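haha ok so turns out i had the wrong file open the whole time. this is the CORRECT one, sorry everyone. sequence first:
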Amino acid sequence: MDRKNRAVQSDDQFRQVVDNVPTVITVLDSDGNFIHANRIAREYTGLTLDEYRSVDVISRVIHPDDAEKVRAARKQAFSGSDPYEQEARLLGKDGVYRWFLFRYNPLVEGGRVKRWYGTATEIQSRKQEEERVRQENVRLEERNRIAQELHDTLLQTFLSASMQLGATVNGVPSDSPVKVRLDRILQLMEQGVEDGRKAIQGLRLSDAHPLDLVQAFSCVQRELAVPSDIEFRVAVSGRQSPLHPAVQHEIYRIGREALTNAFRHAKAKSVEVGLDYSDSGLRMRIWDDGCGIDPQLLNLGRKGHWGLAGMRERATRIGGLLKITSNATDGTEVHLSIPSGVAFQRSVP
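then structure:
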């Protein structure tokens, strides 16, 4: 068998081997032209071997936003002889772009590159996790900015007014008819300052240190200085799963707002929080047996108050569904449901 026939036979054997490897594999000549694409590559992209060899593959299967970067990187790499890798979105025959890590290694003979061997590994889950972390960092920076702004403006003004009012109250005779009213106003202002501090602290909490929802909700009654004669309990059902920190933070803010309304405005004798973990997701139910919320306020909110609107906005932001029902007979129920794919952390391979 002459050298040419042996080379053809060797190429055929090589193609048979790579066609059975469960990874996208391509072979290119020294100029970057496709010589071969294995079975997995052809099945994933939907391109035939002839199309790999004859069409502009980058234009066909690489995301338009990544195509020029891919061309530029390949041109630079193929002018040398060093291995290189690059991330880009690859179009599957199902019409969906997914992130892949492309690695190219040269076959060097006689000091020159004869071929390039390329592999592509899907990294969609990793890229999604990177994007989630990036968005959480953006949110954290924004929350810190808002916290600083609130501390330096509104809270400082409120604290100054409270101190001046306190000094004024101290100068009012104890038998004055306005003494009791001024004392009550001062108590409300001091409570407002304390609530403001806690809100700022909550904004500054790093998502790297998520709250324990059961513990956090259990402390709300004490933090709000609610009379202890109100029956309050927090219950959990199902197997607890780790929540995405950003999602958990929003769940807590929604729940805290609902509990604040129940404790301070509903005149309730009993308040309950239920957290239900299941394969389909997380459901939170907050119920009280109080006087209910006026239907107009429930639908439109109270002018200058953003509690109910904020709860709905938070739920929408994390892909949850919020439902609030209320009447004077049965009290108020707040239901929040979040799909498992949004709520729960999954390990990334």
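Residues 4-8 have pLDDT under 50 and may be disordered.
again sry for the mixup
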